[in-house]
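Need the bound structure for pyridoxal-5'-phosphate, inputs here:
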Amino acid sequence: MFPRDAIARRAPTLWRYAEALPFGPDDPVVAAISMGEGFTPLVPHRLDGVEVLLKLEFLSPTLSFKDRGAVVLVAQARALGAAELVADSSGNAGTAISAYAARAGLPCTVYVPGGTSPKKLRQMRAHGATVVEVDGSREDAATAAIEMVEAKRAYYASHVYNPFFFEGTKTYGLEIWEQLGWSWPDLVVLPVGNGTLVLGVARALDELEAAGLIDHPPRLLLVQANGCAPIARAFVAGVEDVEPVSNEGTIAEGIAIGAPARGGQILAIVRRLGGTIVTVDDEAITAAVADLAARGLFVEPTAAAPLAGLAQYLAAHPEVRPDRVVAPLAGAGLKAG
Ligand SMILES: *Cc1c(COP(=O)(O)O)cnc(C)c1O
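Answer from helper R.:
Posting the output first, comments after.
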């Protein structure tokens, strides 16, 4: 499943883990749409005396990590002979699916909630997607998408429900493992809205574990925004199911998911791995955006939330000084606004 010597000699894209993916790079459905996604660099950063490796996911073709999932999902849609894609998104998943649908020559409709960043809408429309702005919440956008899927028998290119998306986000974890010399850091910091990156990392850990390739599993630190933190709330309450909350507003629009469909699954993962979840307010996110920009890295507010959460966690736990930490910079600054 993970032939390390062979993997190390392959092109620097997520397709280097071909044995662990549903398709290989030479598969015609992939060759037609791949844009060299994956294998993003790790850049060192110091925070409170701790060495943090920032994984520059905003260097992806559509400027967020969602390309990892979108390329596998759209390849699968092509393999099944889908004629039309339907998605719902608060932004970056919609831009990624629109781009790969365009490359696949498939018409694509994206349902978005009110208040989605105009730049992300422009990006979707530039790729030829039909964008439907739903007057309502993120969940209302999903309901509208599902109605269209059922009415038109279209392919539901959902990054939340469709497991092929997590096959793609799994490579985020595999890359961390490879880039750290086939080992895991002490702490993996992840944003969580719908949890596609969390579920991907959990898959990577499970598959490596099954292959007997994990010596030192990482701890997870998950970060939500104060204004919309249903998973953090359930974690603290010690319950197994996530009660939906209404989004009270946050600048981290990409993680403001009030009713995460896989919330229970995410909670189970964090508990199984001995991880924790923190929430951050907009002030801390704004400070993290500014701190990153002052050090050359321009990201959207959602993408600064993990670092804001890490800073808060380190400040609250002076006794915890992890040796190696990896955090994503998941979306580009030019996407905001
Ligand atoms: C999608 C996204 C997230 C959250 O990912 P989930 O899969 O919803 O947990 C975080 N940051 C950015 C920039 C995103 O695009």
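Comments: The mean pLDDT is 96. The two ends are 42 Å apart (CA to CA).
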